[in-house]
Amino acid sequence: MGLIGWVGLTIGGLVYSSMQSQRDFDPQQTFAFAAMASEYPQAIVVSMSKQYPALTKTVVHIQQEDCSCNFSNNIHADRIDDKLDKFRYRSLHVSASSLPADIVLPSLPAIMIFDEQGGLGYFGPYSSGYFCSTNSAIVDRFLDNILLNTHLGSSVVSEGYGCYCPNKIAE
Fold first, then answer.
1. Average confidence (pLDDT) per 10 residues, the chain, 171 residues
2. DSSP letter for each residue of 5-30
3. What CATH number is associated with residue 79?
4. By CB count within 10 A, which of 1, 9, 93, 146 is most buried?
């Protein structure tokens, strides 16, 4: 009986924690407005290259230490890393505080994928939905095209409702 109670409390705690973090990825539309500028993807590449040289074939996983959404996101990040490893992509796991200051990012966790030419292929949330699980992945819609180098430019996604934490650096 004690084990059943412990499991129930654990699941209840996870559900409660997740419910507290349900929000829009870009509630003030700051990310969407920044992304409207045609030079935005190249500005991201230039800014990130100063801090992280050689972004060619690189995925950047961005989290915030005290974000309750990291738990389910880590599973997704590991799955993406496994897939990208087969295409010889390198993986960086960084905190939001280590990003260049000029990068607009309202919520976390987030992901950037730089293609084989070093261009920004994708920037935005991993998933949407209640637990932001791999079943509701946003990034996966773009990933195969980036890996096969058949994508048509950069995809900066600001839409999403799910388990996101506000970026404390952006506030």
1. 58 50 92 94 96 94 93 90 94 95 94 96 90 73 93 92 89 63
2. HHHHHHHHHHHHHHHHTEEESSTTSH
3. 3.40.30
4. 146
pLDDT in tens, 19-61: 456 999 999 999 999 999 999 999 999 999 999 989 999 999 9
Residues 6 or more apart whose CB falls under 8 angstroms from that of 115 comprise: 56, 57, 121, 146, 149, 151
**7 contact partners, CB below 8 Å, separation of at least 6:** none
Is the overall model pTM greater than 0.70, yes or no? yes
Using only C-alpha atoms, the chain has a radius of gyration, in whole angstroms, of: 16
Residue 8's domain comprises: 2-166
Residues with Cβ within 8 Å of residue 28, at least 6 apart in sequence: 106
Taking a C-beta distance cutoff of 8 angstroms, is the pair 100, 110 a contact? no
Pairing of the two strands 58-63 and 110-114 = antiparallel
Instruction: Check the CA dihedral 46-48-52-54 and report its sign.
Output: negative
